[in-house]
Design a protein that fits this description.
- The structure holds 2 protein chains of 2 kinds.
- Chain A is an all-beta fold.
- Chain A contains no helices and 9 strands.
- In chain A, the strands form 2 sheets. In chain A, strands 1, 3, 4, 7, 8 and 9 form a 6-stranded mixed sheet that branches. A 3-stranded antiparallel sheet of chain A has the order 2-6-5, with no helix packed on it.
- In chain A, β5 and β6 form a beta hairpin.
- Classes of the chains: A mainly beta, B mainly beta.
- Chains A and B meet through β3, β7 and β8 of A and β4 and β5 of B.
Chain lengths: ~110, ~120
Amino acid sequence: QSVLTQPPSPSGTPGQRVTISCSGSSSNIGSNTVNWYQQLPGTAPKLLIYSNNQRPSGVPDRFSGSKSGTSASLAISGLQSEDEADYYCAAWDDSLNGPVFGGGTKLTVL
Amino acid sequence: EVQLLESGGGLVQPGGSLRLSCAASGFTFASYAMSWVRLAPGRGLEWVSSISGGGGRTYYADAVKGRFTISRDPSSNTLYLQMNSLRGEDTALYYCARDQGTTVTTWFDPWGQGTLVTVSS
């Protein structure tokens, strides 16, 4: 049971816009920033979004993040087949005194 | 180029021990906190442990506290994870990852390719 809750398996068609949510509590998302990670099949995870809505160099602007209260969201616009991956949110948890991840969301591009 | 190369994984019986290593190159090792994150079969990413750049502060997930020990050797630019009293639920692909600075945060990037630990009799 992950501390941060993500939907299991959304899907979308090429060109669509998809949103992945991440729900937490006051001890994690409510008081700290959220990062998002993308794990393509058979590869190591990669930082996709940091500090709620910042993109590291090289990440396309199709990817965007937001946070409100104790929830965060990752939006992917102009969905492409190569976006098919597992997506994880992460935040520091003040009660646990460490990082916590969401359970992961497997995005399927139909 | 920043590189992280994990090693030390393998098959171990329940109750056994393993020491994972992560050889770092391409950056000033002491300037960055480092972490171990695992990916278990059918489960998502799980943070395991982190250590500050200077090594003075360590953090552990409740699931491994008291059984795992994280450490780092600045002379060899290597991160370690000593794993004792291993259980079946510790079976996973273990990644090492670099932080953004000397302080431990939720920034994990870049990552190594992972080393597989299997706990089974």
